[in-house]
Model the fold of this input.
Amino acid sequence: MRTVMLKGLLAHKRRLLGTFLAVFLGVAFLSGTLVLGDTLRGNFDNLFTEANAGTDAVVRHASKLGTDPGEAKSQRGLIDTTLVDKVRNVDGVADAAPYVEGFGQLLGKNGDKLGGNGPPTLAGNWIDNRALSPYHLVEGRAPRAGNEVVINRGAANNGNLHVGDTTTVQTPEPVPVTIVGISKFGSADGLGGVTFTAFTLESAQEHLLHRTDQVTSISVKAQSGVSQDALVNRIQRALPADVQAITGAKLTNENTSDINKEFLDLFTTFLVVFAGVALLVATFSIYNTFSIIVAQRTRESALLRAIGAGRGQILASVVVEALLVGIVASAVGLLGGLGIAGLLKGVFDSFGFALPAGGLVFKTSAVVISLVVGVIVTLVAGVAPAIKASRVAPLAAIRDVSVESTTASARRAITGLALTAIGVAVVLGAVLSGGGSVLALAGLGAVLTMVGVVVFGPVVARPASRVIGTPLRLLRGVTGSLARENAMRNPRRTSGTAAALMVGVGVVTLFTIFAASLKASIDNSVSQSFTGDLVVSTGRFGGGGISPQLARDVGQLPVVKDATGLGRGRALVGSGTQTVTIADPTKLRGVLDLDVTKGSIANLGPQQLAISKRTADDKGWTRGSRVPVTFSDGATSELTVGAVYNSRNIVGNYLLPREVWAPHAVQDIDTTVLVGLKPGIGVETGKRAVQRTVDAYGAPDVEDRSQFIATETQGVDMMLGIVYVLLALAILIALMGIANTLSLSIYERTRELGLLRAIGETRRQLRSMIRWESVIIAVFGTLGGLGVGVFLGWALVEAASQGTGDFISPTFSAPVAQLAILLVVGGIAGVLAGLRPARRAAKLPVLRAIVTE
Amino acid sequence: MTNTLAPPRAAVARAEHATKVYGSGETAVRAIDDVTVEFAAGRFTAIMGPSGSGKSTLMHCAAGLDDLTSGEVFVGDVALGSLSDKELTLLRRDRIGFVFQSYNLIPTLTALENITLPTALAGKKPNREWLDGVIDTVGLRDRLSHRPSELSGGQQQRVAVARALATRPQIVFADEPTGNLDSRAGAEILGFMAQAVGDLAQTIVMVTHDPAAAAYADRVVFLGDGRIVGELADPTAETVINRMQQLGG
Done:
């Protein structure tokens, strides 16, 4: 039995190649994802451990608000400088250094901003003590005077900056500086992509804090023999209530878990979802391949059974085959994952994320998960058709070559329809009724719908192929007609092949719809609420900052009527940490129409805030409600809701007057300045005037309305781009599935193809026939995917629009042109998938095909 | 059917010193060895011989399905050895008809679509009058919209004969056309073929090992070990059997 099995495996190695590739790609993607996640985690972990290696304790303000990824760490209050001496005097302290840190955008030699796009751009004071700072000089000297700075090697390299050069640091006010030294972060050129500009302590306090009596934190080194815990206990006793001391070890853990929570967990989950889609598509392809292989081998199996092999033995042979393919392909896929991990990092880098560099981390868990998933997927997809085939009585199988039933049963039709109907009903019910669990319910419905459509596929495969192939018959004559008939002849196979593509295209469509809806609503809402003419902004990630002075300067221009800066920060509003927008309410009227339903923005008083209608409904607040707001410095004020507005795309859910915010903020930073021009001033004229003024501020972008909308929607396009790249792999696997099925079908139809060639079909006609069959299958799958994707995309948009997200609530919009392009791409993909099988079929010798055995 | 005493006619196809060797060196097999033979227009020729005598190889080479090691085959005035694969395909499509033992029809097409397939592949419209004549000859009028799976073996083979005749080919090659049929259905097919030669002036070359089938032909060519070993005009089943016994002994 074993010999028969192994010989069979060898004889079919060509057919198994497709299965092998499907498993390989799926596992490579999965393991690549896991390796990339582990690598990033490991790199951050190392960086933080290194950063805090010499620090035994840190003293800092006790309050902390949740931070957004990419934001400067300015969300904690400050502590008094006098505490430095107090801490130094604590028994067991060897040394203590004050530390100041804030936002500081370094400009390169050519005036470009350095860093950003994720990692923060930081400025601080130089601590000339390796024990207390991760940064150490590798060139030049420490800063001594007010305009001298040390910058990290990574930033220096990126900006082509050297010791002795002069440049600008925006804090966000432009500060002219001279570079006197270059530093390294431990052994690296920087903390990932973070840029760090170090002033003297006094300059850092002046530029970053605007006060000399306070610092951000104090780093402490213990005397030898004093443990970190003991040290912290002793220091804590010397501190006031709102100041805390924590151990260096705890700080490292905090840093690591922060980056995990804020970025890495989401990032890896996101990737694993797409690896899952790729694996699902691979499962379909594998299932289909094994179905065909098993069907073709039924006669051989029946013969084996007739001469005494048990059902179990036949099954075992398929299990072993699937197992071998699964193990080998998964193992090779694991290696491929290393390449994929590098590739993925490249993709994200090219889309503008800066991920920290470093060696790949290969963890046992990634190896085990990838191998187990790969093998199980292959086993399940491979053995299911074998079990079905083994139920055929041996004699029936010998008599009848084709035991694979080619038509769809009534039971299948009913099951498929019922599943689809239930799925659609659940989705509709969830979306239309609303409620907290919309996404979970809609997700369940989506899965049911998908399964239902896959089950129902064979029922519609024949009529659908007939309709799709009709134009072919007219355009391509008998070749098209033959292609159509071939696509129709085995609906289960056609549908099974198309299902993989359907899933892939479905997910692509879902994201396309969602992105288009987001963009349309951003566009719509910005058009409606932004009534000004120009916008000065810091780019798509909003990580940078603009000095509030810029809005004042621009406002002085003769061509400008209104100019108002919008800042963004975090505050504890009511019970949760929220993103708030900070603006001068009296100046908003000329540039922003927030569609106010209650009260007046312009009349917001010194103890008031404005909230969105969505928040008002959600929290049960209204005009006059009293809301406690805690700022990052730990102070709490009771504010009154002074206005409620509808349009939250630009300012989000909470709008705070600047006079309320500024006293509690360490650095007052704008992210956007909205500008309204005087009547009669052309946009280009105004733009030139504003650009001249803002050039002094490190040249932030000045955009007109359409550019501003483009920038606002750029992020959506970028995400969609990444999603497309990630889904490309799933589509590729689906296409290989089509190619594989076609190759196997061609093998079955050798005689028929030979006959066609004998009676006068040219090679070209034969190739065309197979290509068109491939196109019909691909278009069938694409159409199915489009249908399911549009419906689920609509559901996702509806579900999302009911959420209470900060800025965007999308309304459904179907991008007809993009969907049409998807369909065309699906067809072209069919041509590509058909190329190789068509070439192989055309090479079949006519004689071997028609000579009877 | 064996009573035609026709005047000598021009050859529609002929082989000159045709040799086909499979393999090389020690294991080389001469499937046909220096065969020279003519197939006259409007005649029904049977090629007979035991298994391995080279009769199928001769037919395949004469029909442009296989190439010769040396020698030449002509269909009309065209030397097949000089043709590209595409030219050979077009020659088969436009000037040659085929009937095989089995797997003769495209399962996804109806009987009529199968019959007109070579014409359709050429992108032409069938000659209605000729087609009607062929369909009536094989008696398929009421089966035209059926698929092969809905037809009996005999009916399927009748469709195949109709397809071979539908393009008015210069020559029809039939490879054991009755091999898979019972004797009654076989006799029917052979009757149609003889009728096509008689009434429609077709030229047919048929490979068979069945003396009863060969008796329908005007002439029998006997092959043994790749060479022509005998010929018989106006054969009957008996004369064929006798000749086979002589050759065998």
